[in-house]
């Protein structure tokens, strides 16, 4: 699956064949078909595993006791995932704009978006947002753009500055009292 992911991300799904994947993975083409009925099923498995990994980010971020801690943990988890699964995100972006793929995974993408928005809306509500659902959608849109820019210019990407600026938009520090 990792070889297929790399080829799909580099060459494109349609330009990659089962024969190429098998050769790069150093397995027979027949063995590939023992695990996956088709190239489409292989792609489906890769995408669904990616969604499952993203869903786990929500659980990782629940470590915090406060809404502020949970938001910080969520942002950290997303950014860590971005770095550790760079190839997946390359593939995700190319497939995201492909109409046939959108249609095929529309149900799962909608479920994922709804889970994401629900979870973050709850955090934003606890942070005192006037429009927690809108803030959740805006953060999701921000992450989509972040992924796109990160993939385009990984080396020039000031991730820590971006993380601080993002969190400062949602988490207001309380002024220190004078003694």
Using only C-alpha atoms, the radius of gyration works out to 19 Å
CATH topology of the domain at 46-170: Tetracycline Repressor, domain 2
Taking the sheet with the most strands, its summary is: none
* Helix and strand sequence: HHHHHHHHHH
Estimate the helix proportion, in percent.
over 70%
Describe the structure.
- With 179 residues, the protein is mostly helical.
- It has a domain at 46-170: Tetracycline Repressor, domain 2, CATH 1.10.357.
- The protein is 77% helix and 0% strand.
- The chain has 10 helices and no strands.
- The protein has helices at residues 2-11, 18-25, 29-35, 39-61, 67-84, 86-96, 99-104, 106-126, 132-152, 159-170.
- α4 packs antiparallel against α5 and α5 runs antiparallel to α10.
- It is elongated and about 60 Å long.
- The model has no long low-confidence stretch (mean pLDDT 84).
Could you outline the blueprint of secondary structure elements for this entry?
Layout: H1 2-11, H2 18-25, H3 29-35, H4 39-61, H5 67-84, H6 86-96, H7 99-104, H8 106-126, H9 132-152, H10 159-170
Sum up the structure in keywords:
179 residues; mainly alpha; Tetracycline Repressor, domain 2; 10 helices; 77% helix
Summarize the model shown.
The chain is mostly helical and 179 residues long. Helix content is 77%, strand content 0%.
């Amino acid at each position: 699956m990792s070889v297929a992911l790399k080829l799909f991300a580099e060459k494109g799904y349609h330009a990659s064949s089962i024969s190429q994947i098998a050769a790069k993975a150093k397995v027979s083409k027949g063995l590939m078909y023992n695990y996956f009925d088709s190239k489409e099923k292989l792609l489906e498995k890769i995408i669904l595993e990616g969604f499952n990994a993203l869903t786990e980010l929500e659980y990782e971020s629940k470590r915090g006791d406060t809404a502020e801690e949970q938001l910080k943990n969520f942002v950290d988890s997303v950014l860590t995932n971005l770095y550790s699964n760079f190839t997946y995100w390359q593939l995700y972006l190319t497939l995201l704009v492909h109409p046939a793929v959108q249609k095929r995974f529309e149900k799962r993408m909608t479920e994922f978006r709804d889970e994401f928005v629900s979870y973050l809306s709850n955090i934003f509500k606890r942070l005192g947002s006037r429009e927690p659902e809108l803030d959740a959608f805006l953060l999701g849109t921000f992450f989509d753009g972040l992924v796109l820019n990160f993939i385009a210019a990984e080396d020039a990407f000031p991730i820590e500055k971006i993380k601080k600026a993002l969190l400062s938009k949602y988490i207001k520090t309380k002024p220190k009292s004078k003694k």
